[in-house]
Task: structure prediction
Amino acid sequence: MATPADPPKAEDDDLIAQLRAMVAAFWVSRQRNRLILLAAALCAVIGLTAYMQIRLNAWNRPFYDALTRKDLPAFVTQLGVFAMLAGGLLGLNVAQTWLNQMSRLVLRKGLVQDLFREWLAPLRAFRLANSGPAWANPDQRLAADAQHLADLTTDLGIGLLQASLLLASFIGVLWEMSTGMFVKIGPYVIDPPGYMVWCALLYAGTASALSWLVGRPLIRLDAEHYAREADLRFELVRVSEAAEAVAMYDGEAAERARLAATFDTVYAVLRRIVGAMTRLTWVTAGYGWFTIVAPILVAMPTYFAGQMSFGELMMIVGAFNQVQSSLRWFVDNFPAIADWRATLLRVADFRRAVIAMDRLGEHAGRIALREGGSAVRIDGLCIAGPAGSVTLSEPQIDLQPGERVLIGGGHGEGKTLFFRALIGLWPWGAGRIERPVRARIMFLPARAYLPSGALRDCLAYPQPASAFSDAAMAAALADVGLDRLTGNLGKVHRWSRHLSENEKHCLAFARVILQRPDWVVIDDALNFVERQARRRIETIFMTRLNDVGVINIGHDGGQPGFYTREMMLVLDPAGPCFAPTGEV
Result:
């Protein structure tokens, strides 16, 4: 399995399959019609631009002939023609720029919406994050890579379309103008039909082949570069989030060394990219400089033989440059093509891996999970975990709303695994679980989660804040001892960093009080609440919320009489195992 330190190899992937998958995703995107309209407008604008450039190329002959004859009236007339042609081309250039930028935005919006939809489909993000280090930090691919792919696809696609239309427009012109042209090699005179066209094809084809041979390593280097940059950003975010802990341990020097080592990997791959770009520049820049004189050298025998005027020569040079400019699109854009190929590889690979999470462990045994009713029933449950199987001390249990159950277990005995199995996040194993639908059961993890936004959004999560009154929210906060926050319901803050661990868990229980589900399943979260707040919460469950069932997976510590039933988790290292690897 690939890791961030070993990015996927470009040569091992099927470009056609990746493109087919991305096009299929685009076709069902909500942005499809807008992008098609923009593409049609771009085709029209680029087509008009090609027509105007043909007119501009034809203008070369009378303009330079007027200069040769020193014909001032004809010269002034041709300046007026040029002004009209240049004005029209200027307007078309502005329109093309606007359409280009809008296409970037719409394409990125469609791509990001697709990645969000696939990534946040039920259970996928969780499984992906736990299927190996290669997918632990998807932010690079969802943000930077998606934007970069949209920008490159738009620019390269428009450039290719423009080059194709110009080639189709000018190759006929150049073929017709090649009539009578020749090259003399010793005693032989060669005058094939379309002489200048064949010269342009040979010239551009040679440069394209050299660019591919010299620049091909850039594809792998670009993919590796993005992987290294993702590692660096992850380390920076990690240090930023843990700044307080780093300061407490006096760990700045250690973190600085770790960041420097991570940056060194970025620097190393960038050095290799610099070398590859330098080698490629010998080809692309040399080709570009020689292009200045190439058409004149090719047309020189005919011109010096007196069979064409200076104006005709400049017209032929202009047409040749347009044709070979279209043909050299690959040469001029090879670094961007390599970058696009590497970015497509990362985005398509991520999207494929996200979708593949639905098939993760498809050949392993599955726990039958049924939602409905108000009771919680567990029958013959055996959870296949990385370190063995986890079972309950009672193979069959039938719990009714209002029961408060403690499910204990020592460290490493599968408490979180059992918690995930009840949710449905961990389906591997055997047996059956019946529980209410998700809307009627709440799960409180060991690490309290507070989304970004206003405090009322945190309290109502995942429901909309409009579903509850401010008075009900304030009462729920007061019930758990968070009275000081009642005036901040509308305040937008990073509450996960603003509140202490005790306050975050208290807010999670305030969420339960506010939303009043049939059941609440707790992954040891009560042990993170201060004793006085815990007593207050337990009292509420024993009085006003005595019809709400409680399953606490953790250690004891509650007040006497709180739990109506107790049982234990049992870990069997020799039992069935399952560890997700991300390979399907």
Observations:
- Confidence is low (pLDDT under 50) at residues 1-13.
- Residues 368-572 form a domain with the Rossmann fold fold (CATH 3.40.50.300).
- The chain has two domains: 12-359, 368-572.
